[in-house]
Design brief:
Its cofactor is Mo-bis(molybdopterin guanine dinucleotide). With about 775 residues, the chain is an alpha/beta fold. It is built from 24 helices and 32 strands. Bound molecules: ligand MGD (2 copies) and molybdenum atom (MO).
């Protein structure tokens, strides 16, 4: 059989799908990609996986009078396959009923998640679009990636510097003498970019910085997540204590007169107030190197020496997104800015600070000066009612309850219908046992999914969605020089339909089809979005080819804009969009909120759980991003499978901690926290700091039938706490988790995470099922 090569793209990079007949049999990385992602090898399995949802399915208890107790509990129940017309009638009927009875404020359409790379068939955007046209929906603000950063940085810098100009790899290689990486710079996290990439620039960019001889300090409890080499040092910091370390470094600068008073005077406010805290004027505790060393368990002499070195040359301070995914996550972010301000190099090439360098592919690449082609959504009339993204279980458990968010008092809406497309809350949320309880509350849960994920298995109506290889789309990221023509490679698997096609048919039943489609089909939309991109590019002086030429070529390479130097304008007198126009080391606004856990300037606060206050035997769990997947995506594939132990996610543990627990390489282990328990396999690693264990996210939640707090597969989110960073940001705090570990007494129990649930054969077409 002849093999076709079909140009395509994904969050983990552009590639050609190798297709024989109706099957994807292989992949070839884009020839433009200097550092292709290993994840590509899981693509063929992902299309034809036994875990695909093949037909619309309705939860049995929902059909039997909307039962959700006992065997009918969401997450435990079986499903009945139904015809598309019946499924669509049920969905449209529920949406209409809830809108009529309770209004749009009872519909949760936040639908957080990464979905897939194409810019037209973006599931969440498609869903939000339809719900906005119906009068609105409850959405969410912020991200699991950097919610705390997104909320604190506008107070400090006037905008969310997680997204915006970033210091280019080239600047770092050319100018930076010392780079202190809080959270390291993992190569595998740079394999991913929302919308994809035609050339992974992070790995080669980092190599060039190391080769240039930059002195690098990797501050990370984990050795492997930063570069190695003669000019690279590893500082195995205690988790969640980086703020104390940054304070200690700043204290040395001040006590030795190495801070840049000129920069602080001209470009910041509040340094004096902060200094009173730093020097211990009121609490009698100077935040000096010894103090920092005792909290972070590092060496005070080395802290002082590093501070001197940082002041002696061009220094870049990077802080990964992970640092703020922790209790009081606002503080390490704010303190990063203060440390860099004290050094006075903000706005100079290769100096200052950066967030998320290494967290994702695009940081370090200059942004395109135009809006890349992408489906936009109409404004949501209920935007003001959005919840902080990680407060979803609180919202479902306590409708009407009050809460604080960034200085405002708010009330949780009374949600009756949850509609999700393109995300996996039973992957991404913390304390899944609690989420499972919260998920029993709404009257109806609708999900579009490609696979029988845990979230699909907790829905009442599950509609099978196509993967990108079953539809045409445009792949694009504003931080990438490529636009990718994602050609359809194979026909839909089973009865899957695109999210757009599903929602078009729901919209038709609700009388808004024309508003939803604007009279366009898939090809019409792609041409329309491309034309918008051409226009936007032209206005910025960039010439894009016509759609036909783009589509036939498979991708377009654009010139990269010149490297960005964040905050260069500040040095030239351009004010920031903060109340003072300057960097706010003290924020009167934040101070006015009166939050002890997020006061008016950065402070060290003990996290709710950390090694400094652990019981004997407790370990600090870091649930990092998986090298073998994108979150829960591709978990069924061969790359993830090869890294597992007894089919369980591998948990990295220091050999000393393993030995004292009777654990050897490959042991099946039980990890327990105050929230729940999961099984995992042990992988011994001397590059993990003693007292710390690493269990990446994304092994599909596989709960015990009778206990949702017990997972058999190695999903860290049964262990993590569902606690906001502070009242300011309410961000997720997955990396603040203490656990206990022991060898598992029993043999490995059967796994059913990747198996479809009990599925009854299709019910006869009832021409409009009434449950
Ligand atoms: N403990 C812990 N938890 C974490 C994190 C952590 O560090 N520690 N990290 C957090 C972070 S940063 C993030 S961003 C989240 C990620 O959380 P999510 O974005 O929810 O994770 P994904 O696995 O990418 O989920 C996407 C889902 O969409 C489905 N999907 C893909 N394409 C389509 C499509 O076209 N249509 C439809 N209908 N469905 C589609 C996939 O099958 C998958 O189930 O996780 C968070 N959770
Ligand atoms: N392959 C792959 N890449 C991905 C993703 C994926 O799922 N798979 N997800 C993408 C997404 S959505 C996001 S948001 C980004 C997230 O990017 P990050 O948040 O940067 O990724 P993490 O793996 O959570 O953590 C990065 C590093 O921080 C360290 N760390 C954790 N806690 C602490 C601490 O308290 N102090 C210090 N100093 N270090 C600490 C960890 O050991 C780890 O090495 O990754 C993206 N990239
Ligand atoms: Mo993320």
């Amino acid at each position: 059989m002849s093999t076709r090569r079909v140009p395509h793209g994904s969050h983990w990079g552009a590639y050609e799908a190798l297709v024989e007949g109706d099957r994807v049999v292989g992949v070839a990385a884009a020839t433009t990609d200097r550092d292709p992602a290993a994840l590509l090898h899981s693509v063929p399995e992902s299309v034809h996986s036994a875990s695909r949802v093949r037909a619309p399915a309705v939860r049995r208890g929902w059909l039997d009078g909307r039962e959700r107790t006992g065997a009918y509990r969401r997450g435990r129940d079986g499903y009945v396959e139904v015809s598309w017309p019946d499924a669509l009638d049920l969905v449209a009927g529920e949406v209409r009923r809830v809108l009529d009875e309770y209004g749009p404020g009872a519909v949760f359409g936040g639908s957080y998640g990464w979905a897939s790379a194409g810019r037209f068939h973006h599931a969440k955007t498609q869903l939000n679009r339809m719900l906005a046209l119906l009068g609105g929906y409850i959405s969410s603000v912020g991200s699991y990636s950097h919610a705390a950063g997104t909320q604190i940085l506008p107070h400090v810098l006037g905008y969310d510097a997680n997204n915006g100009p970033s210091t280019a790899w080239e600047s770092l290689a050319a100018h930076t003498d010392t780079w202190v990486m809080f959270g390291g710079c993992p190569r595998h996290t740079m394999q991913v970019e929302p919308g994809g990439t035609g050339d992974h620039r992070g790995g080669p960019g980092l190599d060039a910085v190391v080769a240039a001889g930059t002195e690098i300090v990797v501050v990370n409890p984990v050795r492997s997540d930063g570069p190695t080499g003669p000019n690279c040092a590893w500082w195995p910091v205690r988790p969640n204590t980086d703020t104390a370390l940054m304070l200690g470094l700043t204290h040395t600068l001040v006590s030795e007169g190495l801070h840049d008073t000129g920069f602080l005077d001209r470009h910041t406010v509040g340094w004096d107030v902060f200094c009173e805290y730093l020097l211990g004027k009121h609490d009698g505790v100077p935040k000096d190197a010894e103090w920092a060393a005792s909290i972070a368990e590092l060496d005070a002499g080395e802290i002082r020496a590093l501070a001197r070195r940082m002041a002696a040359g061009r220094t870049f301070v990077s802080t990964s997104w992970s640092l703020q995914r922790a209790d009081h996550g606002e503080q390490p972010y704010w303190m990063t800015v203060v440390l860099a301000a004290a050094l006075g190099q903000i706005g100079l090439p290769g100096g200052g600070f950066g967030f998320g360098v290494g967290s994702i592919s695009g940081v370090g690449t200059p942004r395109q000066p135009f809006a890349v082609p992408a489906l936009r959504k109409p404004p949501n009339p209920l935007a003001d009612h959005a919840i902080p993204v990680a407060r979803i279980a609180d919202m479902l458990l306590a409708p009407g309850a009050g809460y604080e968010f960034d200085g405002r008092h708010r009330t949780y809406p009374d949600v009756r219908l949850v509609y999700w497309a393109g995300g996996n809350p039973f992957h991404h949320h913390q304390d899944l046992g609690r989420l499972s309880d919260a998920w029993q509350r709404p009257e109806t849960v609708i999900a579009h999914e490609q696979y029988w994920t845990a979230s699909a298995r907790h829905a009442d109506i599950v509609l099978p969605a196509t993967t990108t290889l079953e539809r045409n789309d445009i792949g694009a990221s504003s931080k990438d020089p490529f636009l990718v023509a994602m050609h359809r490679a194979v026909p839909p698997v089973g009865e899957a339909r695109s999210d757009h096609a599903i929602l078009r048919d729901v919209a038709a039943r609700l009388g808004i089809e024309d508003a939803f489609t604007e009279g366009r089909d898939e090809e019409g939309w792609l041409r329309h979005l491309w034309a918008q991109g051409v226009e936007s590019a032209r206005a910025a002086g960039v010439e894009l080819p016509g759609f036909e030429e783009f589509w036939a070529a498979g991708s377009v390479r654009l010139p990269l804009p010149p490297p960005e130097i964040p905050f260069a304008g500040l040095r030239h007198g351009e004010p920031l969009r903060t109340p003072s126009g300057r960097i706010e080391i003290f924020s009167a606004t934040v101070d006015s909120y009166g939050y002890d856990e997020c006061p008016g300037h950065p402070v060290w606060l003990e996290p709710a759980e950390w090694l400094g206050a652990a019981e004997p035997g407790q370990l600090h769990l870091l649930s990092t991003q998986p090298a073998t997947r994108l979150h829960s995506q591709l978990d069924t594939g061969p790359v993830a499978a090869a890294s597992k132990i007894h089919g369980r996610e591998a948990c990295r543990i220091n050999p000393h901690d393993a030995a004292t627990r009777g654990i050897v390489e490959g042991s099946l282990i039980e990890i327990r926290s105050a929230r729940g328990t999961c099984l995992a396999g042990a992988r011994l690693d001397a590059g993990v700091r003693p007292g710390v264990v690493v269990l990446p996210t994304g092994a599909w939640y596989d709960p015990d039938e009778n206990d949702p707090t017990l997972d058999r597969h190695g999903n860290p989110n049964v262990l993590t706490a569902d606690r906001g960073t502070s009242r300011l940001a309410q961000g997720p705090t997955a990396d603040t988790t203490l656990v206990e570990i022991r060898p598992s007494a029993a043999g490995p129990p059967a796994l059913r995470a990747h198996l479809p649930p009990a599925l009854a054969r299709r019910a006869p077409d009832r021409g409009g099922v009434t449950p």
